[in-house]
Design a protein that fits this description.
The chain is mainly α. The chain has one domain: Arp2/3 complex 21 kDa subunit ARPC3 (Orthogonal Bundle). Helices cover 71% and strands 0% of the residues. The longest helix has 38 residues.
């Protein structure tokens, strides 16, 4: 893989962001019925790995748009309406892993170093990405701090961490295989 700027956003990145958003929206819609018990409108969503991976593969802006727009699409398809704070949080979960280039040059995703860097960023992304909307629920919905942390942040962050830690490396290795076969 060639070294590129993290902040490039041209035609290719627009296409990647649209693909990431569509994939995330559709796959999250498929699993949105898997509500976590005793958690406020939080579902088990393995598709969260998609914006995380798109951030790693194509940069933080692509990851952010994939998460933000994909969450809007998934919630719309599920009939849940528009929750801008949660859309922002999902965008953050795509943005943070896209900062992998700041941790050093990544030449291939299947290397142990690249996967470890990605795993660290996946954890940070889930923690921060879900903390922002959880805390915003306090003024937006009138919930208390304990409910925001225990009822929203903890279940969403933990499930997103598990999904990201398992699925993002699989996507990275698969992407490397596709790139190697295509000769790009």
């Amino acid at each position: 893989m060639e070294k590129k700027s993290l902040w490039i956003f041209g035609t290719r990145e627009v296409v990647y962001a649209a693909i990431g958003a569509a994939l995330y929206g559709v796959f999250s819609w498929v699993t949105n019925f898997l509500a976590l018990p005793a958690a406020g409108n939080i579902s088990l969503r393995p598709a969260v790995a998609i914006p995380m991976f798109f951030g790693i593969a194509f940069g933080p802006i692509v990851g952010f748009i994939s998460g933000l727009v994909g969450n809007i699409l998934g919630d719309f398809l599920s009939g849940w309406g528009f929750w801008w704070a949660w859309d922002l949080g999902n965008g953050i979960m795509g943005f943070i892993p896209g900062l992998i280039g700041l941790l050093g040059v990544v030449t291939a995703f299947k290397t142990k170093g690249a996967i470890i860097k990605a795993e660290i960023l996946v954890v940070i992304a889930a923690v921060v990405g879900m903390l922002v909307p959880s805390l915003l629920e306090i003024p937006l919905s009138g919930i208390d701090f304990d409910t925001a942390i225990v009822g929203y942040w903890l279940p969403s962050a933990l499930t997103n961490i598990v999904n990201g830690l398992i699925l993002v490396p699989i996507l990275m290795v698969a992407y490397d295989a596709v790139v190697a076969r295509s000769g790009r």
